[in-house]
Amino acid sequence: MGKSYTLYVHLDYETSARAGAGEMFQVFSIKDADGKDYTSLIDQGTHYHSLDDLQNVLAERFGVSPSEITLIEE
């Protein structure tokens, strides 16, 4: 079993709504409990449908299974 990550995500629904992508979100920031910033791992301009979509992208970047990524929306 690989390393697991618990990440705190700040999401931006407003910008997606203004862009015509209602019910989707962009990511404002991603940090771990120690405050380490992982935002650079994703394209902040991407509109995501769900946390699962974001989780899958992050899992790929970290080289782990999506089940190893826990996202907590703040």
List segments where confidence is low: pLDDT < 50 over at least 5 consecutive residues: none
Classify the helix fraction into a percent range: 10-25%
- The tally of beta strands, per DSSP, is 3
| Overall SS class | alpha+beta
Oligomeric status of the shown chains? single chain
Which band does the percent of strand residues land in?
25-35%
Biggest sheet features: 3 strands, mixed
Q: Based on Cα principal axes, name the global outline.
A: globular
Number of helices: 2
Order of SSEs, N→C? EHEHE
Q: How many structural units, i.e. domains?
A: 1
Describe what is shown at a glance.
It contains two helices and three strands. It is α+β, with helices and mostly antiparallel strands and about 70 residues long. It has a three-stranded mixed β-sheet with strand order 2-1-3.
